[in-house]
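debug: dumping io for the single-chain case to check the tokenizer round-trip. Nothing else runs in this session.
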Amino acid sequence: MSGGAPLVALLVFTAMAVGVLSVKRPGYAAALVLAAALIVVVATRIEALPLALVCTIFVESASLGGLTVGRIAGVLALAVIAYYVLAHGRVSLRFTPLLAVVGAYGFWILLSAYWSDTPSAVYSTFFGYVLVIAYMLAFALLVRSPHDAVNILVVLVVGATLSGFVALNTYLVTGGSIRASGLEGAAHPDTFGVYQAMIAPVALGLFALARSAQARLAYLGCMAVIVLSVVSSLTRTAMISIAVVALIALLAPWRVLFRSAAQRATYAVAVAVTAGAVVTVAASATFFARLGSIFSGGQADRAAGRTDLWAAALTAYDRHPWLGIGAGNFQAHSLDLLHQTQGVDIGAAYIGQGRPVHNAYLEALTELGPVGLALFVLVIAMTAWYLVRVFRRARAARDDVTRIVSATLLLGLLGLAVSLGFLSIELNKPLWIIVGLTLALERMSGERVAEGARAPDRRPRAREPGAGVAPA
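debug: decoded output
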């Protein structure tokens, strides 16, 4: 895409529209400014679209004119990808089994409208699916080199660090009485914490890739801020996730994620220092009460209502065991289902309409049946398998950048897979960004393998006897 008269006309129109809307509809004006900014970035260099989309996940729930940033960015990404495909006439993305499963998952979501009680909830869920697929395709198509992937990881870490500082400020100012949520807004501390936990291993990967001691120290500092911000969110899900990932990174052979054994030793020291900082910064009764609830099974608050919501989801599934109740239909009928489930504390504050299951796997089973659950789990499992394959190819080719990037994404995916057991974020952006990056890395590594297979064999061959010369 290039600039020129159309871009100038768009900017003039945007300026006029913002001037009109800012008087009575400031939210819409702000949304229009965001849209125009993204279009200018993309029009200047379309390869910058993934970097812009990464930035939006830190404020995706912020509302502008009644529309969230995530939805605005998703629609723009969809439009840009459609233009890109039409302009080029073809795409470099091969049709793979992973893409087939992703498509089948979306088709099954849409198909569930035929047996759901509330088809409108299905269509709304499918729209969310289309938006995250736009994100996925943007990364799959426009990330064309390992260097591009590293740039995306850098933006992720910088964004998480800035958001982490905001969260830490909230936590320290309030003495831990308010759950911090960074730039996400006060209503989303769980989502914020899970996103930060997913990005923590990304900082570790950049630490391993950094060449200078100063850069490595900076990335360790970023990782510490991100981990501490998870603590400030008081999100038990994220605490479990980040502990699992940190332990795997510590116990895995150093050749998986680091360049040397010394780097892993440095990481081990950083983990110990960060753990000490966590104990110091998080020394509040609220924090230790929530931490203790992890080990007590969360019976005091029924795991923030999750056990009741899970029981209600199973009630719905028992009534529709083959096909489920339809995508998005648990939220549409959550109040009725909670009232119809035995043992639920009806007087609790979390009893209400519009409640998600708070477990992506159980939600898929309840709403889409065994087929929907299998497709969703396959998306995650095949993404992990592709990352392992990319990792092995990179290790064989001694490509440290691709090896560490793929290992980092695999750790982030693992942390996210753990979190999906406690939150219904299957159609949030981070999972599909990882899927898109995986498709891009798979394409790049596959192309290198194909080029290696086509390269002529230049090894010296044994000299054969010439024509007409009798062998001795």
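debug: round-trip ok. The longest strand covers residues 63-64.
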